[in-house]
Amino acid sequence: ISDQKPLGCWSVKHGQILTCPVVCNFETHEFIAVHDDKVLRIWKNEDINLDKAFKATLSADVYRVHSLPHGGPVVLFRAGAARTLDVLLEAPQQEIEDIISGEVIRWSGAFMEGQQPVLIFTTEKDGDFFVYVQKPKLSSLHKYKLEQQESAQPLCFTAHITNHTVTLLCLYSNDCVYQVLIPLQPDTEEEEEEILSKSLLLNLSVSGPVLKGTSLVVLDKDHIAVLGSLAAPGKEPTECLTIWNTKFQTLQTSKELPLGTSGQLWCYEEKFFLIHGKVLTVIMYKCETSSLAAAVGKLKDSQTPDVSSFMNWNTLEDEELVVSFQSQESVALKAESRMNLRSRRSTVAEKQAETLSVGQLLLNLKDASNYVLETELRQLMAQAPTPDLQATIGCVVTALTDRCKRNPKYYPQDFLQQIVETRDLSYSLCPDLMAVALEKKDMHLLQICLERFPDIPEEITYACLKAFLSMSEAHLESIDVNLDSVVCYIDVEFDNKEVKTEIVENGFSADMDQDMCDTRMPKESQLSSHGESCPVGPQKAALLNAVLHSPYTETFLLPHLKNLPARQAILFLRYLYYLYVKCSEKVNTTLPGIRCPTINQIMDWMCLLLDAHFTVMVMLPEAKELLSNLHKFVRAQVRFYSELNKIEGSLRELQRLNHLRESQTYSIEVLEII
């Protein structure tokens, strides 16, 4: 989330359906999924094909898999039985008993009590609700019936365990949260069904309007978060996230979510996760010990439209620059939507306590002249390093790009290049920088970013590739571009024609390749030893090399790459083919120079480009010769390595004989390779 980069993507076959959420096994760092109710899949992050992952078909339908940090995964079946994953994998087809009859599971949760995992789930049958508390490792099960509430039904549940007591919170349709206390019984079976009584914990009313909750989570012993819609008199209902103090029955703060939500709210490691519109929103929070003074103060705030003093709801706007670098004194929440979650903790030293914060300084410079802005920012960057230095530099770049967007004539090219070259930045720290560079056609800055940023989104990578390919060679010759990655294998004379160089070929010659392919290779794709020319100039080649170095995920880059114009795709493929031939001529298949593309990067991009444009290239006459030459060259390579494989055994035997031979004895031996 911090770098906006997809780390992995796995898909089931067509017709298969994932039937419960995928979880991570904290102990083995494996993913666990269930598809089609009974088929269990387990795989690791480095696995690519889900169909080849571990598979186990179970004898009963699975409701949910729960994973505990120190208790291992627990599998809950729709019939109410539970098994730890280890026990289940010993005999996947073991018989699963039916615990619930005619009941439907509505909610489940897993917790640790000491060293034992505890599974809690609620069921419904004919309007009655039941609670089950189960310890899978001890085969302990207790069933309770939930006390009925007149004219109201439970909508959602959450729970936590404290001092051997389960606290179950129930959000009812009458807009109230009830609390049910369930003591953890000795590990024996209950003979009779016990009825649980509940007590009113919270009434979700906000000075008249009532919050229609859809999901709730527990933050600590005194605070809960409720996601729902707030209907004010005479207004359309608006969805919002609210934080409540259950100890003093007060609303602490709320945030409207105008784009709508899925109705689900998750909480993990002091972060909220929710779907707002079409994006994942992550909100950090921190709870302090509840006090009456704070609760009363926030209650007063809740009477007004703005109740944001309890938390910081700002995203990446000007106001956030202040909040991000100041001490948070109460529950601090920072919402950063569009998956832009950054760690910006305030660690202002005591000696700087009287000076302006970074955020306040940037706000004060918002309307300053360009000279004053750059001077102050240079002084800020020259200060002694602090733990928040990276975030500070990110805010400096953001301030500069904001000025560029407000004033189209302003563009501090040298200053931005200096920052990117000398500071350890990432795309997520300055997300507008590359967009501004693309708009200004700053090819050199884009080259530096592609070479240094580890987290560039695939959409931006594609935009850079398209911009590089569309730029004319004449224009690129006037641009300052770093040529370190090309000067060692593209020799250029004054007329920009490539000079023929002597290169050791990788085990075969051009003549051999022509004999095996029964054709002569065209002039533009002959091997370098025969005077091959690069299809692009050195400046464009250096920029394309930067693209080849940029990390990407194939699944997310391919849709963008399909939009690349056909002629640009052919030009790019021609250059990749040129690099491929160059690498193959070297014994170690490595291009000389600094930050040169590797053979793996070249081949991966060739395959990706062919996947995206193969149908178009087959239809275009100008691409036919290129595809034919590529096919012939690859076939020659395959045959060459096949011949090497045939003598592999003989070479190993020769190596063994060299080890056995006495180093001080002179001899001449003739070894016949059959």
UniProtKB/TrEMBL annotation:
rRNA processing in keyword set: yes
Any GO BP annotation: maturation of SSU-rRNA
CC terms in the record's Gene Ontology section: nucleolus
MF GO annotations: RNA binding
UniProt keyword terms in alphabetical order: Activator, Nucleus, rRNA processing, Transcription, Transcription regulation
Main location: nucleus
Keyword Chloroplast: no
UniProt cross-references to InterPro entries, sorted A to Z: NOL11 (IPR042859), Nol11_C (IPR048897), NOL11_N (IPR012584)
The Nucleolar protein 11 C-terminal domain, residue ranges: 360-672
Residues in Nucleolar protein 11 N-terminal domain copies: 1-286
Subcellular location(s) per record: Nucleus, Nucleolus
Superkingdom of source: Eukaryota
Protein name in the entry: NOL11 protein
Organism: Sitta europaea (Eurasian nuthatch)
The gene coding this protein: Nol11
